Amino acid sequence: MARAKKNVRKSGRRHPLATAALVAVGLLVTGAAYAGFSQTSATAEVDLTSQQTIEEGRKLFGANCATCHGTGAQGTEEGPSLIGSGAASVHFQVDTGRMPLAYQGPQGMVKPKQFTEEQTLQMAAYVASLAPGPGLPEAQYLTADDSNDIANGGVLFRINCAMCHNVAAAGGALTEGKFAPPLGGVEPSHIYEAMVTGPQNMPVFNDANLSPQDKADIISYLKYLENEPTVGGFSLGSIGPVAEGMFIWVLGLGAIVGLTVWVTAKSN
Length: 268
Prior knowledge:
By secondary structure, the protein is mostly helical. It has eleven helices and two strands; from the N terminus they run ααααααααββααα.
C-alpha cells in the first residue's frame, strides 16, 4: 500500500524540464509582444517637425548618405541633390532598400532595408526640413479596400501606368537595362510615394494629375489584382502575348510532332 501511494505521488510530479519550457515560452511571447509594441510606438511617436528628430536625421544622413548626396544634400557627381525631394522620396527609397545603393547601375534595386522605421523617418524629416517637397501620405488614402472605387482605379491605371508596368501590373522592360518593377506585394505607402515622387524612370503624378483619392483607387485596384484568382487559367507571368504565343507554339508544335511520330510508328 505504501509503495502504491509512493508511485502515485511520483506520477503526479512535474517533469524537471517543464519549468524551463514554460519560462522559455513566456520569454518568447513577451519578447515578440514587446518588439511589436516598440515598433508601433517608435513609428507613432516620430514627429517629423521636431528639431530633435531632424537633428537625429541629420546625423544619420551624414554618416550614411552624404558621401553620394553631399553633406548638405546638395548633390555630388555620385548622387543627385535631395533638396526639395521631400519626406516621401526618402521614405520610399530607404524603406524599400533601394538606398543606400548596393552598386552603381541603371537603377536602384529592391533589397532588405538597412534602417529601422524610426531611423528612416528621422532622415525623411531632415531632408524635408531643407526645402518643401512631397510629404508622407495620409493613412486614409492607404486603406486599399472596397471603400475606394476599384473600377476607377483600374481605368486610371490602364491610362497612366499600364504602358510600363503591364496591364496586370507584372512589370516590364524599359531601355538601357532599366525596367518597371512588378507591383504585386508592394506596400500601399510605397505605391503612393512612388506616384508623388517619380523615382528613377517614373513620371511624377502630383495632385493636379491624380488626386489623393485617385491614387487610393489605383492602390485598391492593384490589391484587387493581387488577391483575385486568375479566372482564365494559367497566368504565364501575366507578361502578355509573347509568353502566351510561345506557350501555344511550343505546346502546339510539340503535339503535332508527337502525333506525327505516333502515326508514323503505327503505319509501320
